[in-house]
Design brief:
Length: about 500
């Protein structure tokens, strides 16, 4: 690296650090001046108030740097060259045979590296802290409660709740409208209790193409009803208290005996079988439901009552049962397809009825689990109008792929801007440099023209995003037009 390069780099970095501190401080002080009343609403002590303000602006600085980083880079380069021009250092460089284009190369390279820091900030620092960035100024300690208004997940399920409590990650009385890929309603789950994020694991896989460990929401006081548009309604609605089914202890025992015979294991008479472990999943085609358990294979999963002469049925209790309801796949089809919901409990006691349709399992500590990629951070993030800007490009791409964003055009534009913004910052720099390098006008005139050119570009960039152009055109049209202008202007500089 030449001595000249080191000098230019040192001058540029010192200007950039000075401007970064000044602009960020000005941004924070201005916001604090106009919004101090919001910080004072909680009647905190002075120490708590300072901690409150420091926490809020500490996180907000991540967004401020993302928004102002490009401006800081342009101003640092302009300030450095203007000072070198004012002190006639550029004239001395020209006299020594150094081209002005060679002088600005270190600045352009450093500007690109600093632009990379903005990308790192946006992709790696902002997304993990998105939930804190959407907090209001009077919510530095905890977010206020809010309703969940028809939020969708990747399963096309619509979530509604009158109240979500971020502090406890609890959704009150949620209602789920479960839909298929064509957005046709399959079922509804109505909870009279609460829902909280949970992971469901430890049960034998009962559905093809479904992972053994699921993430989603665990709910209390739930009733699941199937839509008449997708299939015949169930005669009895499954709830967290009872699951009607035609699969009782006798059917479960028969399935276990069949599995034992397949493995050449001797099976004693029924009256000599008080309990069974290692029960395979059993399907009830009438309800399109799979019955399994979460108990280890060496633990009694089914505890049977005594055999009663003349009675075909038999009492029994299931330990840690799992009842998985599926989309109707037909009477003779294998268990596959979308999960409508999973009921699980500490135990379930068989209650025989007069007819097959009246028999059911009575659940103890029953709950309802629905697998979903909608998480607590998503609910908080969507309360902000800038929630698309707080996601990483990978997450934005994933949500676009599964169709979880209502305004697709806006989301596609936001994705294109992740690639266009670093180039925009470079174009702004290249537009400003020709005026600063010019020796045909004084510093004030050069600075004024530079600000007018960069301001025009900035205005054109935002105009393209607001007038309804196709996302790709809105993101890259300013770069194509003004990038060409910048190249011509730099080539015209007398070096």
């Amino acid at each position: 690296m030449r001595t000249l390069d080191r000098y230019v780099i040192r001058s540029f970095l010192s200007s950039a650090l000075m401007l970064f501190a000044a602009i960020m401080a000005l941004r924070i002080v201005a916001d604090l001046f106009f919004n101090m009343d919001e910080f004072l609403e909680d009647n905190e002590t002075f120490a708590e108030l300072i901690r409150h303000i420091s926490t809020y602006y500490g996180y907000q600085s991540l967004m401020y740097f993302s928004e102002l980083g490009g401006t800081i880079i342009v101003m640092a380069a302009a300030f450095t060259l203007a000072r070198m021009n004012h002190t006639n250092e550029l004239t001395a460089m020209l006299a020594s045979g150094v081209s002005l284009h060679r002088v600005i190369v270190p600045m352009v390279v450093l500007s690109m590296l600093m632009g990379g820091l903005i990308v790192v900030d946006r992709e790696l620092l902002i997304p993990p802290n998105a939930a804190k960035l959407v907090r209001a100024r009077d919510e530095a300690r905890e977010l206020a409660e809010f309703p969940v208004n028809l939020t969708t997940d990747s399963n096309n399920t619509i979530w509604w709740s009158p109240l979500y409590e971020p502090a406890t990650r609890t959704m009150r009385a949620p209602i789920l409208t479960i839909r298929n890929t064509k957005r046709q309603r399959l079922a509804s789950a109505v909870a009279g209790g609460v829902a909280q994020p949970a992971t469901f694991a430890g049960f034998r896989r009962t559905v093809k193409d479904v992972p053994a460990t699921l993430t989603g929401w665990d709910m209390t006081a739930v009733a699941l009803s199937r839509s008449t548009l997708s299939a015949q309604p169930w005669e009895n609605t499954p709830t967290v208290e009872k699951i009607h089914t035609r699969v009782g202890p006798v059917q479960l025992l028969a399935k276990a005996k069949q599995r034992a015979l397949e493995h050449n294991i001797a099976v004693p008479p029924d009256e000599q079988i008080p309990s069974v472990s290692g029960i395979p999943p059993v399907r009830d085609p009438h309800y399109d439901m799979m019955i399994a358990t979460r108990s280890p294979a060496n633990v009694d999963e089914l505890v049977l009552g005594p055999v009663t002469p003349g009675r075909a049925d038999r009492d029994g209790r299931l330990n840690r049962p799992v009842f998985t309801f599926l989309v109707d796949t037909g009477q003779n089809q294998p268990a596959s397809g979308q999960i409508l919901g999973i009921f699980h409990a500490t135990s379930a006691t068989w209650v025989p009825g007069d007819t097959a349709n009246k028999s059911y399992w009575k659940l103890e500590n029953g709950r309802f689990f629905y697998p979903s990629d909608l998480n607590a951070d998503d609910l908080v993030l969507r309360q902000s109008s800038r929630w698309l800007d707080l996601m990483s490009t990978a997450e934005l791409t994933r949500l676009l792929k599964v169709g979880r964003i209502p305004d697709q055009a806006t989301a596609i534009l936001a994705k294109h801007l992740r690639f266009a913004d670093p180039i925009n910052n470079l174009v702004m720099l290249l537009l400003a440099l020709p005026f600063i390098l010019s020796r045909e006008r004084n510093i004030k005139a050069s600075a004024t023209l530079s600000v007018l050119m960069v301001g025009s570009y900035f205005a054109f960039v935002h105009a393209c995003r607001l007038v309804g152009l196709p996302p790709l055109l809105a993101a890259f049209l300013p770069i194509v037009l003004f990038g060409t202008v910048a190249a011509v202007m730099l080539d015209a500089v007398k070096t």
